[in-house]
């Protein structure tokens, strides 16, 4: 720990730039760093110095992209697919995604309503840019994926953080929407399964949430990026109950393509033309070769690989969840999906950021502090990612058992 502090490296330092005197926009000072990236950078640095670090901070699959995807990308490059492509995505990929909705959920989603984006991040930016006027608010959970509120701020709106805990499965529900809706609220945003908690919304909960938001004339955005990575129960798509909702999704997680930067959104038909216009201006096009690679994600031999990986994630979860609880962390809601466990560490610390730094520096275990995901009891929580092999998870649990007694 002291070594770290002597270097002047702190996860909070970079959130306090003197932007006003530099003439930079006020919004930038309110956008906080993505702390997990800093944890990862420090973990990588320590590993380069020879430390044996168990990486449980990353929010991405540890597996490299499946071989058929890599080969399709290579073939696209060899064919010269190196030019701009359509702003909404190449037609075969939009059609493959439309078939994906039919096969997975039995839904008829026209390819024209599906826009391919640079990651779920690009989808989020398009939706924020489409919906938010300056001063508008969007309800979202605290804890939640940190970039959501920052995207809202970027377009001069606000994430309106609703503290959630085990009583609502760490999710927004109709009651919370009703209780927290303000004059400037224009909608609500949820993720199912969610980051960092892994909890998912049932069909009934999605229906009630949608009805409440619609009764207020609001928009509903559902981030379904962790669909496909569900180990307990099911995670229905919001489109099964509300075809007018905005859906965010990605090739990053289930398809294991984080570095290719490819995602998609589903929008109501009426919104598509405006969103394509925004996409043309913001991105011109997505990576053309990445889109050709992603097409291979729907091939049966790739799906077999991805399903095997889902099973491996499930086995890791089944090992880690009880192990974390035995260590003394509390996990009041069973994480149904994604690859995270959001643990209450209040028995050990009231400063999870320092706690995580100490575990990293002195014990070689990289975890993400709760402060990355909001404010509500953030200092008492941390996130375990099971994005490393079982032997490494066991090593981490052994190390933590020694430290925590
Ligand atoms: C809930 C959620 N949404 C969106 C993203 C962004 O993913 P990408 O831009 O890689 O598709 C992430 C990444 O961790 C996430 O956890």
How would you state the average pLDDT, rounded?
94
**What would CATH call the architecture of the largest domain?**
3-Layer(aba) Sandwich
Taken from the alpha-carbon principal axes, the silhouette is globular
Low-confidence stretches: 1-15
Helix content bin = 40-55%
CATH H level of the largest domain: which superfamily? Type I PLP-dependent aspartate aminotransferase-like (Major domain)
Explained architecture:
This protein has 405 residues and is an alpha/beta fold. It has 2 domains: 2-64 and 303-404, Aspartate Aminotransferase, domain 1, CATH 3.90.1150; 67-301, Type I PLP-dependent aspartate aminotransferase-like (Major domain) (Aspartate Aminotransferase, domain 2, 3-Layer(aba) Sandwich). Helices cover 42% and strands 13% of the residues. The protein has 15 helices and 12 strands. It has helices at residues 2-6, 19-22, 26-30, 35-48, 67-78, 91-105, 119-131, 147-154, 174-180, 203-215, 272-283, 288-295, 300-326, 352-363, 390-404; strands at 54-55, 114-117, 137-142, 158-163, 185-191, 219-223, 246-250, 263-266, 340-344, 365-366, 368-369, 381-385. The strands form 3 sheets. A 7-stranded mixed sheet has the order 2-8-7-6-5-3-4, sandwiched between helices. A 3-stranded antiparallel sheet has the order 9-12-11. A two-stranded parallel ribbon has the order 1-10. α10 links the parallel β5 (185-191) and β6. α7 (119-131) packs across α8, α7 (119-131) packs across α11 (272-283) and α9 (174-180) runs parallel beside α10 (203-215). The longest helix has 27 residues, at 300-326. Residues 59, 119-121, 145, 191, 195, 223, 225, 250, 252, 258, 263 line the site of pyridoxal-5'-phosphate.
